[in-house]
Amino acid sequence: MTGPRRAELWGLPAARPVGHVLAVVSDDPTLAGRAAELLDAEGLDVRLEASGSGLETLQGLQRRPTLLVIRSPEDRRALDRTLRYVERRAPGAIVVVVIALGERIDLGLTIASGVNALVREEDLDVALGPAVRAAACGQFSAPTDLLRLVQPPALSHRERQILGLALAGLSNAEIADRLYIAPSTVKTHISAAYRRLGVHSRREATALMFASDHALGRTVLATLKLADEYAPTKEQP
Predict the structure, then answer these.
(1) Cα 169 to Cα 228: distance, rounded to the nearest angstrom
(2) Interhelix angle 31-41/124-136, nearest 10 degrees
(3) Range of the domain at 41
(4) Cys staple from 17: which of 33, 45, 60, 177, with CB 3.0 to 4.6 Å?
(5) CA–CA distance, 44 with 65 (Å, rounded to integer)
(6) What's 94's domain CATH number?
C-alpha cells in the first residue's frame, strides 16, 4: 500500500509527492531498481537518472541528481571520494548511505561528510522512504544502535565489569566465581546491561563495543584486556 493510500485509510490528507532525480552508486546492480520501487511505493516522485558501481556513475550526468542512494563500499576512501564529489557537483542533494549489519562507521564523520541518512541493508524496505522524507525536512536519521554511540547509555561499574568479562568469553558461573557473587546476580546484571544498550545477545553487544570510541566502549574493552591477562591457563603436559 502506497503512502497516499495509507493516508486515505486513516482519513488523513495524502502526502504531497516529492520530485527527485535519483542516482544509485552500488556494487549490487539490483539496488537501483529496488530503491526506485520502494520510493515510488512510498508515494515519492522519483526518476532514476543513473546507477553503477563507482564514482563514474555520477560523472557526465545530464541532470544533477537531487537524491543519491550509496551502498557503503568496503573501502572507506571510495565512499569519501563519492561524498566529496556530491558536495561539489550536487550541493543540497539528499544522500542516503546503505550499510551492512555490523558494519563499523564513524557517525560523526559521516554526518560531517554531508550524509542525511544511514539505512541498514536489511531494513531498506521499511526505512528508505521514511528516511528520505525525514531528510527532506532537514532531519538526520540512523539506526538506533548507531545513534547510541554518540551518547551511549550509562552502565553501572558492576554492569561494565560483568559485561567485559562476558565478552571475554567467561560463562556466568566463571564470572560469579571471579567476582564472588551468585550466578543469578551475574545474569541479572547482564540482562540489565543488554536492555540499556538495546542489544539481545553477546554477539550484538560485542559488535556495539568494538564500534564505539566512547568511554563506555573503552571501559568494557579495558575489562576485556584485564580478563585476558588474568585468565587461567591450562597446564602443559
Answers:
(1) 9
(2) 70
(3) 3-149
(4) 45
(5) 15
(6) 3.40.50.2300
Measuring CA to CA, which residue among 37, 25, 217 is closest to residue 115? Answer: 25
Strand partners, 22: 48, 67
72 and 169 in a single domain? The answer is no
Is residue 194 within 8 Å of residue 200, measured between CB atoms?
yes
Q: Give a yes or no: residue 236 inside a domain.
A: no
Is 50 exceeded by the pLDDT of residue 127? Answer: yes
**Mean pLDDT confidence for 169-195:** 91
What are 87-122's pLDDT values in tens digits?
Answer: 889 999 999 999 988 777 777 777 778 899 999 999
Q: How many domains does the chain have?
A: 2
Runs of H (alpha helix) within the chain: 3-9, 31-41, 76-89, 107-112, 124-136, 144-150, 157-167, 172-179, 183-197, 202-210, 215-229
